[in-house]
UniProtKB/TrEMBL annotation:
The lineage of its organism: Eukaryota, Fungi, Dikarya, Basidiomycota, Agaricomycotina. The keyword Membrane applies. Belongs to the VPS53 family. This is Uncharacterized protein. Residues 614-695 form the Vps53 C-terminal domain. Its main location: membrane. Residues 1-21 have a biased composition (Polar residues). Keywords: Endosome, Golgi apparatus, Membrane. It comes from the Eukaryota. It holds the Pfam family VPS53_C. Residues 19-380 form the Vps53 N-terminal domain. It is a peripheral membrane protein.
Length: 802
């Protein structure tokens, strides 16, 4: 980028100067009065000008001095002198270093001479001591003073090491050779002594003190010779064991495993009392004896087990004997058995305990438990489950009646016993397989004992309640809940005991889901019995001529039967079901069943007329009071949520009845009453009310026209209401199982107060099986055509000449 020209720079400076001058003038003369001070301002400016000129002169002098050529030459001359001084210093430093080296070289030679002299003196001393120690050893060799021999030999072996570099000297070489010969002589003498000890003649007892001293000499002779002596001792100790308990002989079979350990305990006892004290503690001969026995036994048992599958009792006896032996050895040495047998003369370590050989054969144990559980449950499964349930319920003497099936406690007690037993044998693959057997039979128990014990659904409703079936369902419900809760505890125990690598594979979740399904089926069975008990009362509703009633006469006769049937079933449930949450669950479902069946019966009994609707409304109050009493024997104890739930379910039926009993004259008032109570604009729903009310066809058209006129201008009305879900031709029977959801929640219900769907219980919403929901679209088009016809008729009336 080009630099600005001098003219441009000068122009900018002039512009800035003129601007600053104008600013200065504006500051000095801000108004007309300030012009009178122009003399003072002029004098001030002159002083400033003089100061600037003096400063410029000083700067010129300094610039001239700094740019003097003579000064630069002086600086260069000084730099040259400085370099000369540096070179002189370097030369003097080199001279000083040479002087120091000359002084220290003498000292270094003296240090080397001193070191050589010290080494020579030490070597001579070692040589003298070696000769003396060798001479002493030579004198001791003919004797049996092994303690002194071991000390002399140790001294010779220790002194030979530093003198090895001098072995090329003939004198030293001869002494080295003599010392080696003496060492071999000692080794031969020691071997003879130990062999005599190993094969000692009872008639010629061995001097144990001598053997103890011989072991000291063995230590000096080196690790290889020591291991050879120990291994020979171990072989001799176990030679008879290998002969007696061969895998091919009867004594070596699995049923004689306890004899193996008994034999070794006798050998070990003799070793502890007679031989162990002779060996140095550092040899750990006792641990090595146990390790060798364990290795030999494990190999023998592996061969025996590989030949044939043993009987469960024999296998478990052998395993238990092995575990007892390992536990005893662990206590003896104060360490885990794995650590006891980890010692080896060959340098390696044993990785497996004796009992580990049984692990892959314990599947026969698991199979045996499988068969045992099968035999135990055979008396309760399938067709026998019903009789076992009835016998449990009928055992009602002075003692309290059982609340759960005894077979369930028997099953889990057996599970606990087998788990504790399996923990002794294996915490790995075997325990995992056992847990799978537990899961299998828990699922079978849920299906073949609990579910099979419930009476099949009756194809026809006899109209008679069967409290025996209610009691049966309650007991099955309690048992299923007990099994579900206990399976959780069993799962936790298994996870605590099993090897951590198998912990994630332990789960009874599928079995708990099956048990939850059983509990749902129990609730369904109880509700079915409730429906059966109430059927005569609902049939009485159908037989009552509601349209011909002349007055309201208190509660109807059928209400007494209905309330009595409900209370009878509810008392049986409250007295038998242990968990309050399932009592509440039953109450929620029962409300839905009763209100649904009641509503269906009312719908089938149409037309009702005003008096009939008023009588039914009074009956509903009695039924509502009974339903509030379901969870607890006194309605005041019911929870607020449950009370709201019952009120909502009965309230919609009450609302429908209030609309029906309202007079239809004047018709505008009837329509307004419908809009106020029902709150929808549905033509179909209004038609349902007219049908229930029994309004003549001749009067319906007028009411429908007024309804369309009123609702077409009211935007606050909704399109649907609880009447939308009412089936005017309900089925003869109800699928109660569709109303039962998983009973895990404490307040699960058919139609709870928190439900997002408004209307009568779900049985009414889903009760139609004839395609009612699919016909909603044609009905909507029908309403639209009626609306068009009504609007056209109004237009014709408006345009008609008066």
């Amino acid at each position: 980028m080009p630099s600005p020209s001098p003219q441009t720079t000068t122009g900018h400076a002039s512009a800035e100067t003129s601007t600053s001058a104008l600013d200065r003038l504006a500051n000095e003369f801000p108004d007309a009065e300030s012009l009178g001070r122009h003399k003072q301002i002029r004098a001030k400016l002159q002083l400033e000008t003089m100061g600037l000129r003096e400063e410029i002169a000083k700067l010129k002098v300094e610039l001239k001095r700094d740019q003097d050529p003579g000064k630069m030459s002086n600086i260069q001359s000084e730099i040259g002198q400085l370099m000369l001084q540096i070179n002189v210093i370097r030369e003097k430093a080199a001279e000083a270093e040479a002087i120091v080296k000359g002084i220290t070289s003498d000292i270094q030679r003296l240090d080397v001479a001193k070191s050589n002299l010290t080494t020579t003196i030490q070597t001579l001393e070692r040589w003298a001591m070696l000769k003396q120690a060798h001479q002493q050893l030579s004198h001791l060799l003919p004797t049996r003073r092994y303690k002194e021999i071991s000390q002399a030999l140790a001294a010779v072996m220790e002194l030979l090491g530093p003198l090895k570099p001098l072995s090329s000297i003939p004198t030293v070489f001869h002494l080295f050779k003599a010392a080696e010969n003496d060492r071999k002589t000692v080794q031969e003498k020691v071997a003879v002594e130990m062999d005599a000890f190993f094969r000692q003649d009872p008639n010629k007892p061995v001097d144990k003190r001598t053997i103890s001293e011989v072991c000291l000499a063995v230590d000096v002779l080196g690790g290889d010779f020591r291991n050879h002596i120990i291994e020979r001792y171990l072989q001799l100790q176990l030679a008879e064991y290998r002969r007696i308990f061969r895998a091919t002989d009867e004594a070596g079979q699995l049923d004689n495993v306890p004899r193996r350990y008994a034999w070794f305990r006798r050998v070990l006892k003799h070793h502890d009392e007679e031989d162990a004290m002779l060996f140095p503690d550092s040899w750990q001969v006792t641990r090595l004896l146990v390790a060798n026995f364990s290795e030999c036994t494990r190999s023998d048992l592996a061969n025996v087990l590989a030949k044939q599958t043993p009987a469960v009792s024999v296998l478990l006896d052998a395993l238990q004997g092995t575990l007892d032996f390992e536990s005893g050895m662990s206590r003896k040495f104060g360490m885990p058995f794995e650590e006891v047998i980890s010692l080896s003369l060959r340098g390696g370590t044993s990785k497996w305990v004796i009992s580990s050989i049984f692990d892959k054969y314990l599947s026969v144990y698991v199979d045996a438990q499988d068969r045992a559980i099968s035999d135990m449950l055979s008396a309760y499964r399938g067709l026998k489950s019903r009789s076992s349930l009835e016998s449990a319920i009928q055992e009602e003497t002075d003692a309290p009646a059982p609340t759960i099936l005894p077979s369930s406690t028997e099953l889990f007690y057996f599970y606990g016993q087998q788990l504790d037993q399996c923990e002794k044998y294996s915490k790995g693959e075997t325990m995992k397989k056992l847990s799978q057997v537990f899961a299998k039979w828990l699922r079978i128990y849920a299906d073949d004992v609990l579910l099979a014990g419930l009476k099949p659904v009756r194809k026809s409703l006899e109209g008679r309640d069967n409290l025996q079936e209610v009691k049966t369902a309650c007991m099955v419900l309690n048992t299923a809940e007990y099994c579900l809760n206990t399976s959780l505890q069993l799962e936790e125990r298994l996870k605590d005991k099993i090897d951590p690598k198998f912990r994630e594979e332990i789960s009874f979740q599928d079995q708990r889901e099956s048990l939850s399904s059983v509990m749902s089926t129990c609730i369904t069975a109880i509700l079915r019995e409730l429906e059966t008990a109430c059927e005569p009362a609902f049939a009485a509703i159908l037989k009552t001529p509601w349209m011909h009633l002349e007055n309201v006469s208190g509660r109807s006769a059928y209400v007494v039967d209905l309330v009595g049937s409900i209370k009878q079933v509810a008392e049986a449930v409250r007295g038998r079901v242990e968990s309050k949450k399932y009592i509440r669950n039953f109450a929620d479902k029962a409300v839905g069943v009763v209100i649904t069946k009641f509503t269906q019966s009312v719908i089938k009994s149409r037309p009702l007329k005003k008096i009939g609707a008023e009588q039914i409304l009074l009956d509903v109050q009695a039924v509502k009071a009974c339903l509030l009493d379901l969870p607890e024997p006194h309605p005041e104890n019911s929870t607020t949520i449950y009370t709201k739930y019952v009120t909502k379910n009965t309230g919609q039926l009450e609302t429908m009845l209030k609309v029906i009993l309202a007079p239809d004259d004047p018709p505008e008032g009837f329509v307004q009453n419908y809009c106020l109570l029902i709150g929808d604009r549905s033509f179909t729903n209004f038609q349902k009310i007219l049908d229930l009310k029994g309004t003549p066809r001749t009067d319906q058209q007028r009411l429908l026209d007024i309804f369309l006129s009123v609702t077409s201008t009211n935007s606050e009305l909704s399109d649907t209401s609880f009447l939308t879900h009412i089936d005017m031709d309900p089925p003869a029977s109800v699928d109660i199982s569709r109303t039962v959801i998983s009973p895990v929640g404490s307040s699960a219900s058919l139609f709870s107060p928190t439900s997002g769907v408004a209307g009568l219980p779900s049985l009414l919403r889903s009760g139609s099986t004839d395609g009612t929901e699919r016909s909603e679209t044609p009905k909507a088009f029908g309403e639209f055509r009626r609306l068009v016809n009504f609007a056209t008729r109004r237009d014709n009336i408006t345009t008609m000449p008066h």
